[in-house]
Amino acid sequence: MIKLTPILLAILYAYVSYRFSAWNTRRMLNAKSTRLADPTLEQMNKDMARALDVPQINVHIFEVEPVNGLAAPDGRIFITRGFYNKYKAGDVSAEELASVIAHELGHVALGHSRRRMIDFSGQNAIRVVLASLLGRLIPFAGVWLANMLTTMLAAKLSRRDEYEADAYASALLTKAGIGTGPQKTLFEKLDMLSAGMGGATPAWLLSHPKTAERIAAIEENEAKWGVT
Question: In angstroms, how far is CA 206 from the centroid of its own chain?
Fold first, then answer.
């Protein structure tokens, strides 16, 4: 029983961490978001809703400055104020922002949002157990190795999700008549925006695939689907 204690504690920690993260995320989003009210984007949302055969797609503005889009575990879609401001300034087109919404819809439809939160909690639990075990076997370096292994695992899972959400978005954008062009040009713009931020980080540690690889995957899907 004593040997199992760290594992049982890790499982309990993962459960509590998941419940707290879900509650805290929902509370933060409720407090810092407003419904998107932009005629051009709303029309594109209607086009995508028709393609999905759903009544509507509700998108919210999350009042933070970093350029990002996100899908909440409860299925809501958010665009950050910073991203929306880029659109209003003309740096990002309406079609490119629609591709972000389509991508986040992919995360919801494929169950990534909820699973990511569960994965995050589980990975933290694994980190605790590994740090405890490896810390005894390899003093000083054990904790560092535990952090490295769990970071690699998280990055691999995240990159897989991104490719899947990209493919979902490509199919939806094509069916909605928007096309995949804005999806690819946005990746290139975001790549320039993030230039110099961790450029030397190995690809296997990045939570998102490299831009060239994402575009290549989209074009591979286009070739399979016969889309030009």
Answer: 12
